[in-house]
Amino acid sequence: MDNVRPSLGMIFNNLDEGAEFYKRYAHNIGFSVRSLTGVKDKKTGFVIWKYFLCSKEGYNQPTNQSMNGGKSKRLKETREGCGAKIKIKRTKEGKYEIKEFVEHHTHALATPTKRHLLRSTRKVNSMHKAVLFTCSRANIGPAKAYQLIKHQVGGYDKVGCTQKDLQNYQTGLKIMISDYDAQMFKENFERKKELDPSYYFAYEVDDEHRLKYFFWADGIGRKNYATFGDIVSFDTTYGTNKYSMIFAPFTGRNHHRQCITFGAAFLCDEKTESFTWLFEKFLEAMGETPEEFEHSWTQVVNEFELTKNEWFSSMYEIRHSWIPAYFKDLFLAGLFRTTSISKSENSVFGSLTDKWLNLVEFWVRYESIIDRQRHNQKKSDHDTSHSLPILKTNHSIEKHARDIYTHANFYVFQKETKEENGSIIFEVMTVILGNQSKELYLIILWTMWLIAHGRGIDAIPSYYIVHRWTKSATCSLIFDMDTVVDEGCSQIQLANIEISELWKDFHGCAELVGYDIDKIRVLRNGIIDFKKSLLESTNVCVDNKTNDLEAYVESTIPVKIDIHPPKHSITKGSGKRIPSGKEKAIEDKQKRQRLCKSCGKYAQHDSRNCPMKEA
């Protein structure tokens, strides 16, 4: 213990070294350290002297509420007038020397099993931050992230911080984002546009330069629309950000019958002009014009004699708020209620977002969802290319269906197949588009009576094959948008990639050493030696909140702010539901009754709103 005990005249190279030395001593003894503001030289700016005290030095000042007998938070006394401290002073040589040392404490010291809870030795380090950032992208909060760290390091005493420390750290980052939020959100898309010319985004601000609308669609989303744009579902969802802006994704369905996102937007309100702006930008991004919509709409109305249909007429009146691809080529892919697609996808967005997110935090979660969505499509492509479903019959027409359709569509095809007396029969499937005045029946894909054996047909006729359901649906060359290389990534993204590779290498080494104690020690000593060399280096990365924030949101802090965060939106999805009379009565019954000084009864009121007083 004597080798870490402070003594008068002890010399340090700098003030930080002296502070760290006293903190290590305090941890070994069992107390926490805080510092007083030091005295600086006005000419040079160097600290002349500084005190480091026991955290229990002095006394807590009473608050106004506690002095007046009012309600206050359950604050705790943490100071007891302890006089333990050291004073460090700058020497003529530019080093720092201990000039005063008071060792005695007036309170009990922390036991060895509780020293990890001492405040001055707790710190949110780079490992904690890496886990917190990773968990945040998967919508895992700091509480669960802390539990993951605890299990990873082997116990609470080895974590190095408390759960509250981790929560406070994340809160601090969120506060830092506030003023930069909209600007960082916009600059993020500008960088993506530079790296990928096919990236599209558009936005609009109000008179106060606050964000009103924002729409975006990346190259892959636009390419997917060109292939699968015959099914488009649009629906709004709420509670995805702290401004209560409406999140509006455009959703489709790929050749594996999976949901895919073509683009998405934020809107500040639900007015007609807001949706008009959005749909115009969507059409602009996807390369469709209003003239194309007018032509397609007229075809639908004339073919199905819908001129006098009130619902279709009303929809035409608000055609600027409608999606032309809904009725493109009159193909609805077996599903008229396309909002069910949106509901399915919105539930996914809802599971990974919450109403406390900044825009840039939302974006990190959004990218995670899109990555998962596209990974699922690649996995389905792989499964379709490298495996074959089991046939129910020996007929060549079923084999032909297996060869051309993706697995998901073949199973739908196979479900409608049966064999009778050596003949293969396909049941009639119809899509019924219902409204009160008329029913429309559309024959799609396999919607036919066909006795293949009797007619000698051993393959599906080409005019019954819809290309968008086949294995080759994505093979047609539309335009190349998958050419972004790693060199185009931001420095932060490249650093994150390298850190991921570093973790892989570390875990690979840990796997190789296994449970061999000697090998574990060799690996650990090698890491410790390398850490020492990094600490001695003059190029050590500075640990500050700015770097942390940029790593957290994978974006840089803007130098200038042109776009301010949006106002809090008032939408139908942002308010609380009005409780019923029964719910109010139950809530009142559960409230603690208090003594009314006017009527002298225990009730749900007090002297200010007593019924007797009003009478």
The percent of residues in helical segments reads: 40-55%
Structural domain tally:
6
Query: From the structure provided, what is the oligomeric state, counting identical versus distinct chains?
Result: single chain
Net shape: extended
- Main β-sheet: number of strands, strand sense, barrel status? 6 strands, antiparallel
What report would you give on this structure?
The chain is an alpha+beta fold. It has 6 domains: 121 residues, no CATH class; 40 residues, no CATH class; 204 residues, no CATH class; 80 residues, no CATH class; 63 residues, no CATH class; 29 residues, no CATH class. It is 41% helix and 13% strand. Strands 1, 2, 3, 4, 5 and 6 form a 6-stranded antiparallel β-sheet that branches. About 9% of the residues have low confidence.
Write the layout of secondary structure elements.
Layout: E1 11-12, H1 15-29, E2 33-35, E3 39-40, E4 47-54, H2 64-67, E5 85-90, E6 96-102, H3 126-137, H4 142-153, H5 163-195, E7 200-205, E8 211-217, H6 219-228, E9 233-234, E10 246-253, E11 259-267, H7 272-286, H8 290-303, H9 310-317, H10 339-351, H11 359-386, H12 396-404, H13 407-415, E12 417-420, E13 423-426, E14 431-434, E15 439-442, E16 450-451, H14 452-455, H15 491-513, H16 517-536, H17 545-553, H18 581-590, E17 594-595, E18 602-603, H19 611-614
Antiparallel strand pairs: 1-6, 2-4, 3-4, 4-5, 5-6, 7-8, 8-11, 9-10, 10-11, 12-13, 13-16, 14-15, 17-18
Helix pairs in contact: 3-4, 4-5, 12-13
